[in-house]
What we know:
Layout: E1 5-11, E2 16-21, H1 22-28, E3 39-41, E4 44-48, H2 52-64, E5 73-79, E6 89-90, E7 104-107, E8 110-117, E9 121-126, E10 131-135, E11 143-144
Parallel strand pairs: 1-5
Antiparallel strand pairs: 1-2, 2-4, 3-4, 3-6, 7-8, 7-11, 8-9, 9-10
Amino acid sequence: MKNKIKATFFNDAGHGWLSVKRSLLKDLGILNKISGCSYQKGKSVYLEEDCDVNTLFEALKAKHGISNLNEFFNIKNSYKDSSPVRSYSNFNSNMIENWSVGLIIKLYGRQYTVESVDKKRIIVKDGNGSKFKLSTRNIGDAVVDLSA
C-alpha cells in the first residue's frame, strides 16, 4: 500500500494497544466486534493487542489482501511504565458514535434496524417496516445485537 495510515502502538510493562481512528473500524464493519478490553478517547480506539488487533488484521486482510499490519499502517511505538491508555474509557460499541445505518439493536424486547443516525436522534425500523425516532438521550436501554 503506497499511502500508509499513521498509527501508534502504546504499551507498558503489562499490555499494549494499537491506536486507530474509529472511522476505520466503522468502514471495515467491525465496531461491534471490538471487546471492552480496548479503550476509546475522542475519535480514536485503542485496540487491545491480544484479541482486537487480530480482529482488525483479519478485516484488513479480507478487504485489502494484506499479510501484516505494517503493509497498511506506519506504526510508531510509544512505551511508558504505565500507559495513559489505561485511564481512557473502555470501548463500548453501544455508544452513539459507533452506531451506523443497518445496525441491529434490541430495545424493550423488540428488534430494530437503524435507518439513520445524527447527533440528536436515531431513526429505527421494526420488522413490520414501521419507523420510530429515538432520542440519543434515551438509548441507554438499547442493546446492540452482536449476533448479527
